[in-house]
Amino acid sequence: MANIHLKDLRHSYMAEPKGDADWALKRVDLQWRDGGAYALLGPSGCGKSTLLNIISGLIRPSEGQILFDGEDVTDVAPDQREIAQVFQFPVVYDTMTVYDNLAFPLRNRGVANAKVDARVREIAEMLELSDMLQARAAGLSADGKQKISMGRGLVREDVNVIMFDEPLTVIDPHLKWKLRSKLKELHQKVKVTMIYVTHDQTEALTFADEVVVMQEGEVVQIGTPVELFERPAHTFVGHFIGSPGMNVLPCELRDGGAFFAGSQVTLADGTGRPNGAGRLEIGVRPEFVRFSQTDGVPATVVRVADAGRYRVVETRAADMRVYALAPEGADIPEGETRLTFDPTRTRLYADGWLVSDNQEV
Ligand code: ADP
Ligand code: MG
């Protein structure tokens, strides 16, 4: 097991990258603590697989270094890095039995038979493959094959890190939830560093203690699920996480206050005018938008959708769509209303980035 430090990484798939857009990873510098459960979250194409393949050594970064416990492994071959990687689509030996597939990574490293057997049965039990250990992998469904793939990733106990690249893509929805909780359980048991890549916020937030959010080849925020929810460092994070995501609304700063659609909005912090900022916006999550008859921003309710414990209320205010979440049983106005934003939860963003009085954040 190891601490992993990705030091000043950049990567381009082009021989002669020119503009920003030519870099699949623009600049990444981050550390993964030994034994942590991490998620790498971001939309398709933001560079997640590129980053994983750099850690495992399948790709050599154009610039920067990969350190395991301080030791530079940038030029160490993939099979020498002691990493398990599970890909989006199953990698199994079709002609082998399920048992032999799971045993392969251990036998390959000369692990004693008794130990192999115990470990294979333990992993099979966890993934509910015990009944089919003697079946050929070829006969299994896509789900079944991916479970073998995951099993092969989990079977070794001596790896530096186990990485999963969108492993549940081909898995049936009802199984997804189950496997996700199993992985979490397993992590708590074995404490091997795990990095779980996904574009699905629910998967990331349920699995990880710490989530790294990426956008267009850059890390925009690293935080616990609570931090990402409560204090998005960038409007992208606010919008990408949450359902619906944070409302991001244009604002003006004048007379010492922030104004949206002509109404003054009280901010949690960051009221000082940001230096030379271009685009100014306020961010407030739908959870912290309330209806009022007397105060706030004039708005019109256009749609109400039931989401179980909450109703999602879509409103329009000054041509902007603003969502509010109303708890079960709360009164929802029809037509014209006013919106107030919880002042402790309303933040200012300049060119997408959080403006804070507390410069440490
Ligand atoms: P993600 O896994 O987040 O979907 P990727 O790391 O696969 O993102 O891709 C990041 C960027 O690099 C994308 O623009 C993608 O088109 C590009 N890319 C990925 N793999 C290659 C490749 N082998 N050759 C050229 N470009 C690639
Ligand atoms: Mg990918």
How do you describe this structure in short?
This protein is α+β, with helices and mostly antiparallel strands and 361 residues long. The protein has helices spanning 48-56, 98-107, 113-126, 142-154, 173-190, 201-207, 225-230, 235-240, and strands at 4-11, 25-32, 37-41, 63-68, 71-72, 83-86, 161-165, 194-198, 210-215, 218-223, 247-250, 252-254, 257-260, 263-265, 280-284, 289-292, 297-307, 310-317, 320-327, 336-341, 347-350, 353-355.
Explain what this protein looks like in three dimensions.
This protein has 361 residues and is α+β, with helices and mostly antiparallel strands. The protein contains eight helices and 22 strands. It has helices at residues 48-56, 98-107, 113-126, 142-154, 173-190, 201-207, 225-230, 235-240, and strands at 4-11, 25-32, 37-41, 63-68, 71-72, 83-86, 161-165, 194-198, 210-215, 218-223, 247-250, 252-254, 257-260, 263-265, 280-284, 289-292, 297-307, 310-317, 320-327, 336-341, 347-350, 353-355. The protein has a six-stranded mixed beta sheet with strand order 6-7-8-3-9-10, with helices on both faces. Strand 13 and strand 14 (263-265) form a beta hairpin. Helix 2 packs across helix 3 and helix 2 (98-107) packs parallel to helix 4. The longest helix is centred in the middle third of the chain and has 18 residues, at 173-190. The mean pLDDT is 92. The structure holds adenosine-5'-diphosphate and magnesium ion. Adenosine-5'-diphosphate binds next to helix 1.
Low-confidence stretches: none
Order of helices and strands: EEEHEEEHHHEHEHEEHHEEEEEEEEEEEE
Q: List the bound ligands.
A: adenosine-5'-diphosphate, magnesium ion
Spatial ordering of strands, largest sheet: 6-7-8-3-9-10
> What percent of the residues sit in helical stretches (DSSP H or I)?
10-25%
Strand content: 25-35%
**C-alpha end-to-end distance:** 30 Å
- Taking all residues together, what is the mean pLDDT? 92
Main sheet record:
6 strands, mixed
The total count of helices amounts to 8
Q: Number of DSSP strands?
A: 22
